[in-house]
Amino acid sequence: MNITEDPLYLEIAEIVNGFNARYLERVEKVQQEAKACKKNNVLQSKIAQEQKLNAELKSRLAELSKRNDGIEKICLKFSSGLTISDSDQQRLENAKEMVEIGKMLTGIRFDYSAPPDVVKGYIKCERNRTLTPLELPAAEAEARLWAMLGDCAAQNDGKENRRDN
């Protein structure tokens, strides 16, 4: 008789195979639990980092909110104290009107977005239908503007009383 046919051997082999299958299942289960623990640890560390960052951002937000409240109070004080008196309002209206008249008479258009130390814009000469750009240092602007206006007016070839066709 062959050993593989012996009933005792077959019974022992079946018991060993069953034990081996249960052992392999348990090993696989332990490995899966180890992987899950490792993933859990990684996630826990990320959560801890995010919570720390969240706490820092909340503290910065609280600090900025306090600053904002202070700035709003200051702005409120300034806005309540800043009013234009009637005489100042009238002077402002007069100045606006004078600027409009000056624009109509001289043809000068200023670029108010230019830096404060530069006078920038153009001169519109109706007679010749030209635009002359200008960009001058503020220190010498007055004299040069009058010269440029004189040049524009002088371009009529001495026929100042004659109508242009």
What does this entry look like structurally?
The chain is mostly helical and 165 residues long. The protein has helices spanning 7-81, 86-106, 141-154, and strands spanning 108-110, 118-125, 130-137. It has two domains: 3-79; 86-154, Double Stranded RNA Binding Domain. It contains three helices and three strands; from the N terminus they run ααβββα. The longest helix is centred in the N-terminal third of the chain and has 75 residues, at 7-81. The model has no long low-confidence stretch (mean pLDDT 85).
Based on secondary structure, the structural category is: mainly alpha
Query: What does the main sheet amount to?
Result: 3 strands, antiparallel
Uncertain segments: none
Share in helix: 55-70%
H/E element order? HHEEEH
Q: What is the CA-CA span between the terminal residues? A: 136 Å
Number of helices: 3
Strand order of the largest sheet: 1-2-3
- Share of residues in strands: 5-15%
Number of strands: 3
CA-based shape: elongated
Radius of gyration: 45 Å
| Overall tally of structural domains | 2
- Average per-residue pLDDT, rounded, comes to 85
How would you briefly describe this protein structure?
With 165 residues, the protein is mostly helical. 67% of the residues lie in helices and 12% in strands. Strands 1-2-3 form a three-stranded antiparallel beta sheet.
Structural descriptors:
about 160 residues, Double Stranded RNA Binding Domain, three-stranded antiparallel beta sheet, 3 helices, single chain, mainly alpha, about 10% strand
